[in-house]
Design goal:
This protein has about 240 residues and is an alpha/beta fold. It has two domains: about 45 residues; about 200 residues, Class I glutamine amidotransferase (GATase) domain (Rossmann fold), CATH 3.40.50.880. It is built from five helices and ten strands, in the order αβαββαβββββββαα. Strands 1, 2, 3, 4, 5, 6, 7, 8, 9 and 10 form a ten-stranded mixed sheet that branches. Helix 1 runs antiparallel to helix 5 and helix 2 crosses helix 4. This is Ice-binding protein C-terminal domain-containing protein. Pfam families: PEP-CTERM (PF07589).
Length: about 240
């Protein structure tokens, strides 16, 4: 019985460490960009209703040790709130990714700052060219083809050194990615999917899943300690069994 109790305790400790990881987070202003629930519908389709969190600029704990993937939308009427918040939290976002997190920043802005600094060595520029055709450079997101169209599938273009291009329009690159430290970042200037053709919804869902898969499981310090205790417990159990 002593051996079984020791093993059970180790399993419980290890399970507690594993349970500390949170689900995806969608971060924007209090109101939805473009007055549509498109982003919410995208998240429900990608991860299932109730399996992700909606956060507002200024909320605490968004980039805590238990967060893993954060999608940030700064489009349309949320442009000013997005830029103000990002200017104050740029280093926090970079540190989160460098530590193993995944961030997808997407902002089809309305009246945004030229060459806005997104960190990670990248800038965002509103072109005034509301592209009606956007093209993927990868099949990772493909849904009924690699082209998605609409009344304006993107507003901004993204530029930076060391990035891979994932999508582009006639105005320039509209979605980039790169590894940063231990994590992964995606930067885009696309509109919400209510402006896209039929396959645009599924393409965005695939983008969110892809970004979430970019999370690196870097346990917080307390989890590392608990994991070590679990291994110690298993070791003691084996010694007791031999005795």
């Amino acid at each position: 019985m002593k051996t079984l109790k020791t093993i059970s305790l180790a399993c419980l400790i290890f399970g507690a460490a594993q349970a500390a990881v949170a689900g995806p987070i969608y971060l924007t202003s209090g109101s939805e960009p473009w007055g549509t629930n498109a982003n919410i519908d995208n998240f429900d389709a990608a991860f299932g209703a109730g399996n992700w969190d909606r956060a507002v600029f200024g909320d605490a704990g968004v980039f805590s040790d238990t967060s893993d993937f954060v999608y940030i939308d700064g489009g349309d009427g949320n442009t000013f709130d997005f830029e103000t918040w990002y200017n104050s939290n740029r280093s926090t976002v970079e540190t989160f990714v460098a530590s193993g997190g995944s961030v997808f920043v997407n902002a089809a802005r309305w009246g945004g700052t030229d060459n806005f600094d997104l960190g990670f060595g990248a800038t965002l520029t509103e072109t005034g060219n509301y592209s009606t055709e956007c093209t993927l450079t990868t099949n990772d997101f493909a849904a009924a083809g690699t082209v998605f169209t609409g009344s304006g599938c993107s507003h901004d273009v993204v530029a930076g050194a060391g990035f891979n291009t994932l999508a582009y329009s006639t105005a320039g690159n509209i979605l980039l990615e790169k590894s940063y430290g231990l994590g992964h970042v995606m930067l885009g200037g696309m509109t919400t999917t209510n402006f896209h053709s039929g396959n645009g919804f599924d393409i965005r869902v695939n983008m969110l899943k892809y970004a979430n898969d970019g999370v690196t499981a870097v346990p917080e310090s307390s989890s590392i300690v608990l994991f070590g205790l679990g291994l110690l417990g298993l070791g003691l159990a084996r010694r007791n069994k031999k005795a």
